[in-house]
Amino acid sequence: MTKPDDSPPAPPPATPHVQRRRSLLGGLRTSFLTGIVVIAPIGLTLWLIWTVITWIDSWVLLFVPAVYRPSEALGVNIPGFGVILFLLFAVAVGWIAKGVIGSTFIRWGESLVGRMPVVRSVYNGVKQVAETALSQSETSFDRACMLEYPRRGIWAIGFISTRAKGEVAASLQGAGRIETVFLPTTPNPTSGFLLFVPAADLIILDMAVEDAAKLVISAGLVYPNPRDPSRPPVPASDLPR
Hints:
Elements: H1 16-60, H2 70-73, H3 81-97, H4 100-113, H5 117-133, E1 143-148, E2 155-163, H6 166-171, E3 178-184, E4 192-198, E5 203-204, H7 209-217, E6 222-223, E7 234-235
Antiparallel strand pairs: 1-2, 1-5, 2-3, 3-4, 6-7
Helix pairs in contact: 1-3
């Protein structure tokens, strides 16, 4: 004697109307996500540019007499007016600094700052960072690499800035050639760790520094195009497994 089937009855198949509605909702969802992917980078870029412009304007216009401000003289606020003044001022200072009188004045000012205990440390540190970042003779990061971090068997992406110099190189003479490596964090690559690593422990990557940065920022979701490096990066889901 067979027992009656106590399982619930199967749901009826979806009608063509329900299927069309699901297909329409799925298409709208896909279009919405695609729109977000397109709008988000543009919106964030415009927001960042606008924030920098307004921040510079707010600082520069403090030193401009109220009579000469566009809001007072013309009755309208011109975004970027402070940025233009700052650029003109920077060009003028650079032109004066290249002359004899300007260089003499700068040396006198630096000698005066060098006598101030706290200000001296801040000024020298900021000057060194600015000269390194704005130097046109060498790039900050010219190669991407992989190194085992934080332990053996786990690999991370780093950026080689230069060969170790000075006291650091002298203290590690027995370790061979030492490279200065910046190890960025995800998704914010502006923070990270400064490491001095033997060159023998590094694997130099063929990808450009920009592509490696995209890989770090996207948390591994966007890889450089392995088929044609000149083409845009591809999602990790499209790579062969």
